[in-house]
Structures are given as C-alpha cells and as structure tokens.
Amino acid sequence: MIYPGQAILRVDLTNGKIEEEELPDSIVEKFVGGKGLATYLMYKEVKPGIDPFSPENKLYVFGGPLAFIYPTFTRTVVASKSPLTGLYCDSNAGGSFSIELRRAGYVGVILEGRSDKMKCLKITKEEKKLIDCESLRGKSTYEVGEVFRDYSILTIGPAGENLVRFAGVFIDLKKNPMTRPGVAGRGGLGAVMGSKNLKAIILKGWLKQDELARGVNKDVQKDLTSRYLKILQEDVVPGIGIGGNLPVFRVAAEAKILPVRNFQAGSHERWEELADDAWSKITIKRIACPTCPLRCGTTVVEDGSSTERIEYETVAMNGSNLMIISRKALAQINTTLNALGMDSITTGNIMAFLMELNEKGLLKDYEIHWGDSESYIKLAYDIAYRRGIGNLLAEGLARASKALNAEEYAMHIKRLEIPAYDPRGVVGMALAYATADRGGDHLRAWTVAAELTSKLTMEDLVNLTKYLQDRNAALWSLVACDNIPGNSVKPPDEMIRIYIQMLNTLGFNYDEESFLKLGERIYNLSRLFNTREGIRRKDDSLPPRFHKPREDTGWVITKEDFERMLDIYYSKRGWDSEGVPLKETLDRVGLAGLI
Amino acid sequence: MNPTTIIVRFYGVLKEIVKDRLELDLKSSEILFTDLIKEILREYPALGNYIIISGEEVEVKGISVLINGRHAMFLGGDKALIRDGDVIDVLPPLHGG
Q1: B13 touches chain A (CB under 8 A)
Q2: Do A411 and A490 lie in a common domain?
Q3: Min Cα–Cα distance to chain A from B39, Å
Q4: Domain boundary among A369, A394, A417
Q5: DSSP string spanning A223-269?
Q6: pTM for the whole thing?
Q7: ipTM given for this complex
Q8: Residue B1: which pLDDT band, with cuts at 50, 70 and 90?
C-alpha cells in the first residue's frame, strides 16, 4: 500500500452488495488517484458500445491522496460514459466530499448496476449501506441537502432522476451553506446516477489527519504546507475574484470574445451590468471549500433573489449569450438550475439556440425570445420534467438540433455544448476545445493565460495545448483545484513542484518529467476510450459557425487553418492521421501491458 | 516606395497601455510583423510585458494577434507580411476558466 485508504468501495445497486477493494500498488503508482484512477478503471470496466443509461455503465466518484493531508485538495472527480456524448466524461467539483471520502478510508466509490427503488448510499464509521430514499424522489438538490444537513452529500436533482442528458452532480448544496458547494456539471453524469436510481451519497468520515498522513515526515509536511500557503496568499489570492472567475467577464467583453446571442457577436453595450464590480456590490458572503483559504464560493442577493456559487460560465452563457442583462434574473436562473440539477453551460447553449431560431422565424411551435428570463425558468422546469418541447431539449443540443433540422445553429463539439469564450478571437482555444477528451471544453487546456509564453506559431500553440492537457490531467489525479493555477498571477511552476513533493511524501516517486508523463498517460487513455467508441478526426472539429467570419469583427477560423493545426497536434501527440494513439505512443507513456 | 497605412486595434488591458486604435503610416509598402512590433514597442515599451522580441522572433504572453481576422500563426507568425490596408487585432490574455 502506497498510501492509507488506498481502497475503493464497490457498490452493486442491483443486488445491494457493497464490497471494499484494495487497489494494487502497480496501478496506484501509475494513476495515483482522482481522474487517473477513474480513467483507468473506467477503461477496463466499461465495455465499448454500452448504453450509458444501462446497468452496465458505471459511475466513478474519486478523491485524491492529498485530500485532508495538505490544504486545498478538496475536489471530487465524477466520471462515467456520458449519456450526452456517448464518450468519456469526467467532471470535478469542490466541496467537502472528497475529504470525507478519504476520512472514511477510501479514495473512490464505484457504482454499478441499477436499484429497483430509489436509494441513497450512506457511509459512516458505523455502517455502509444502501438506504431507502423513495421519499426523496422528485426533491430538489437543496431539499436533499437539508434532509442530510450534517453529512457531506453528493446528490442529483429531478433532472437526473428524469434522465435529462445534461443533469449534473451536486455537492453540499443546502440553505446557507458553511462551506462552498460544488458542481460536477458537464456531460450528464447526474443522469447516469439517476439511471441507477441512486439519489445521493451521504458520508461522514472519521479518520484523523495523522491516520491518513501515516508515514509522512511531519517536518516536511509542515514545510511544504507553509510554502504552499505562502504562494496561495502572494500569487493566487490577488488573482481570485468574485466567484473565482467573474473578473474574466470584463476581459472577455472588452476583448469581444463574450458569447452574445448564440455566438453571433462578441460584446454588447450593457456588459458592465454583469461584470465583477456589479456582482461585488451585491455579494453577501464568500465561502471556501474545507481547508482552502481562497473563498471563491460567492453568494449574492439582488431584490430578494439570492444564489450561491455564481460564476463566469453561468453569467456569460445565460446572461450575455441570451441578452438577459439582469443580475436578479441570473441569480434566479442559477438557483433554479442548481435545484433542478442541470448544467448551466449546456442549458444556456440550448436556450440561445432556441432564441436564435425564434429570431430567424425558424421555430414554429414555441416562442422564447432574447432576454426573456421568465420563459427561461418555465422552460428549465419543462426540461427537468421532460414536458412538451422540454422532452426533446432534455436530449441535449446535438440531438434536439438534428430533430429540428437546425444543426447549423447548434454550438457543440462531440455533443458537449461550448463554453463561454469565442475561439474566433482567442484562437488558441480552438484546438483546446476540439481535442478536449470530454467534448467542447475549455478547462483541459487554458492556453490564453498571461503566464504562458509562446511564439506565434502553430507548433508552439500545439506544444502549449498538449502540455496543458497533460499537466491538468496529472493535477486532476491529486485532485488539485482549477481555480488555483488558473488564477495565479505568476507562472504556477513552483506550485506544481511543491505538489509533486507533497505526493512524494506519501510514498510516490515522481519528478517533473514523470508527473507530466502521468498526465500524458491519462490523456491517452481517455482518448483510447473515445476511439474505442468510434471517435475519429472528423469529430475533432468546430461548430460550423466558427468557420464563418463573425459579423461584428470579421474574425474567423478557416477550416483549412484548423486542419493544418490538427495535423501538427496529432503528430505531436503520437497519434495517426485519424487521431488514434499509435502503439509506440502507448508504450512510451507506460500503457503497454495495462490495457 | 509607396507608404503603408495599417490599423492596429488593442483590447482590454492593452488599451490602457496603447489606446484602442493605432493608425500607422509606415515608409514601405509592406513590413514584416516583427518589424512592425519593434516600431510599436519603441513608442509603447510597457507592451513589452505582453510581447517580447527575442532576436527576430516574437513571443507573446497569452495574447492573440489577428491579421485581417485570421490568427497570425496561420499567416507566418512573426514572418507574416503586413500590407497597406491591413487590420491587426491584439487581444489580451485571460485569467480564469
């Protein structure tokens, strides 16, 4: 055993069996925790071609080995075959869950099969069991959070129960939370949970820090913690704004890369009403995940409408993108989506699609116009409960747009809807979006930060994209928080060196080169999952709109330019011309013999 | 030689250094992107926090450079030729995600 609690809980919801499994050192050495272990186990256990809603699909919920031993490693990775994309998906969320999971002596939980009745999984020192939760059927995430207020809780809302393909998984949502709630929103992992009739996992850990840090040199632990906290205070706290990332709204608006009216424009004259200054004035509370000093969880109140965890993607995708220029309305929207349990990026994209169809007279049987927040809220409920047009929209934007014969207006990549940055301006993100392992995603590789220096060449951009994808995959095996390197005002290299030293205090033996290779190993494995499902070059592509000059600026990414960049990316990755990893690449990254 | 008039537009924090738009009249009919940047940096050295000339190479810190709407890297990068009437957009880096 490399670290204490190097075990998983495997839960078969069909027959109710709950078993502990120790993970072999040979696997833990190569995949560490979090995204690493989840990806490896998912690749081995989830057969290609299965229906994501079938009992054969599995849900992986993983923390990382540094949780509770060092500050800030509180993120939980949730992973499965996505019902939205049919591909690999992982999403990570803040909150207390992974700390309590580690304090219960596990690094992960695997949910299999399907229960015939609604259940919750309860994990305490006294018992690990599936409890009847039929009485919670239909309850919002907040209502479930109140029922289990004294526990760390991971739950779904009605959208997950109704198999809305973009239902999310929500951590620690409750009234007046003391610690920051988290959302694993992307890819419909909440619907996988719903398909298993699992409403929530509730847990209360019991192990003390010393027990989890058994074997760690106390003086080294203290020194690394002190150095890390100093970097956080000096380099990251100045960069963390309201909501963690709301300051980027102003930059995006001024740079004309804000999504406006379904990416038809890049800014609008009222953007300041939704910028960070405006949200600061109505902020009543800033809270943090346990052990983290950053307090990026922001609660706002405007005219009686309050919400927790307001952040950039929700504001941009549902605010400027829909011309809903009202903080009160956006607070209502955020709370509604949290309560119903749906992803705000996907929902914003779907609403924008409908509003544009209305604008162009292309939608006969339903009306919803730019700026109409009341209709938005009503439609969100219709989606969560699959009523009327909501039933079609619950299938996600790709399927809905195909059924409506309007695919040219749908902004998604591999069926995962686009985040809130127009890559016709920040072209460095075009490749990142198209080659992200879970579909249209901006977090796998954030190439446009000021701390990253590159030449104005495709080769440099490709190198940067690959480096960040690999680095972040490694960081998510710990599970480090995206808000931290992303908001550092200096290059985060020293921070990452400290992370590696922290890992090594547990008994690992990584250096910078092998840590990056860990990430490359994980990224190639998630790619293999996808190529096994049939993903090829044609799927690493951008929505048609991005290949057309944008009306307000003329900015464009031509198909030819994009394909040239993709060729270089595949070559750098060691993949063939269709984007399939070559055998020698798999050997080089340490996957030979494992898969 | 015919003079060259080009427009360079700056966005976000870069506007605070340069102003939002430069209209440049240059002596030759075309100019290498690197040489253009050298001219601009001479007048606005604070831009050096974001654009660095290293020999004849341009390095950028998170910023995007578009020439007539297409990213400069597709047009030869720092070897791109800028001609009369061209419009260059320089976008700032972003924090967040």
Answers
A1: yes
A2: no
A3: 18
A4: A417
A5: HHHHHHHHHIIIIITTT-BTTBTTHHHHHHHHTT-S-BTTTTBS--T
A6: 0.96
A7: 0.92
A8: very low
